Amino acid sequence: MIRPSNFFSLPSVLPDQELFESLFFKENIRIERIISTGQTTPLGQWYDQEQVEWVILLQGEAVIFFEDGLRCKLLRGDYLLIKAHQKHRVEYTSIEPPCIWLAIHVYS
Question: Where in this chain does the record put each Cupin type-2 domain (predicted)?
């Protein structure tokens, strides 16, 4: 019998680092759940990903800053398409409630 999982069910104790959980991976696509509790990208560092990433914030609040100066405040239900090699960093994630993200990565 297949048992469903609940996307909003969180571990009783959240780790100090962001929690990345791979939900699906096949050929050129990966789907993951990310749980953030106040974590940010260290100053001076950027995400520079090989793949396109579509991300939706399902719970919490966050701010993503792009190298070109664009700053995006995300609230529950907001989503972004981040192009490959579009440098960005996470400037803020809420602690209460924790941020719950759904990220879809598409590899060329």
Answer: 48-104
